[in-house]
Design goal:
Elements (H helix, E strand, L loop, with lengths): L1 H13 L12 H9 L6 E3 H6 L4 H7 L6 E3 H13 L6
Antiparallel strand pairs: 1-2
Helix pairs in contact: 1-2, 1-5
């Protein structure tokens, strides 16, 4: 779960609209960024799985249930996880 949250937090920072993309800080982050095959800043379930992520994480983060997770949903997901007492290390 910590790896999942680390990827969420890192991907949120990389995909921020105002900042240019930064080099990957971890393997999990790099896999998530690399899995965005069409580089649209969103992950469909296939891209999410390609990053080594589990379906339950996708369901947790896809708040609007539109079958993609975007940067705003990643940020929301990370905040929700923190509120639940899950912390990334």
């Amino acid at each position: 779960m910590r790896l999942f949250l680390s990827a969420i937090l890192a991907a949120t920072a990389i995909n921020a609209q105002a900042a240019p993309a930064a080099p990957a800080a971890s393997d999990a982050q790099a896999r998530l960024v690399a899995a965005d095959a069409n580089k649209d800043g969103k992950w469909d379930k296939a891209e999410w799985r390609a990053a080594g992520r589990r379906d339950m994480g996708f369901a947790f983060c896809d708040v609007d249930k539109d079958s993609v997770v975007d940067a705003a949903e990643l940020k929301s997901c990370a905040e929700k996880a923190r509120a639940m007492g899950m912390t990334a290390q």
